[in-house]
Design brief:
mainly beta; 4-stranded antiparallel beta sheet; about 140 residues; Immunoglobulin-like
């Protein structure tokens, strides 16, 4: 049996080389899953955000990244209730997703219906820069 030399710094390099925007959710410990796909001349991002008021969701596109920021309302905990488990996440959240192609930032639109946020971003032929806030239609 041959011995394999452990190189801890190589493991650190590998950790920093990871693309965190495509990391499996089990590794980053979040419930903010995003489906990102191309549909014709658009890039579309779809997120399930049940129980979130659309007025408390902020969507923006900046430097090839889609940023979704918001808050889930915190429930007042009643002392009469004896919880067996409490797993629903409350409070603020943020998700940053690297876009696979340049998009026309000022033409991005977002819809929120039945707890699903759909962000539609027209593809652009050249480079993209700057920051644009997106209004959400509900």
């Amino acid at each position: 049996m041959s011995l394999i030399r452990w190189e801890p710094f190589r493991e650190l390099d590998r950790l920093f080389d990871e693309d965190w925007s495509t990391m499996p959710l089990s590794k980053i410990g979040t419930d903010l899953a995003v489906d990102l796909y191309e549909e014709g001349d658009k890039v579309v991002a779809k997120m399930q955000l049940p129980g979130v008021d659309p007025k408390k969701i902020d969507v923006s596109v900046e430097d090839q990244y889609l940023k979704v920021f918001g808050a889930r309302e915190e429930e007042k905990e009643e002392k009469k209730k004896d919880y067996y488990s409490k797993e629903i996440r409350r409070g603020s959240f943020e998700r940053l997703v690297r876009l696979p192609k340049p998009v026309v930032a000022d033409k991005v639109s977002a819809d929120y219906k039945d707890g699903v946020l759909i962000v539609t971003m027209p593809k652009q032929a050249g480079s993209n820069g700057g920051k644009v806030k997106v209004n959400i239609a509900s």
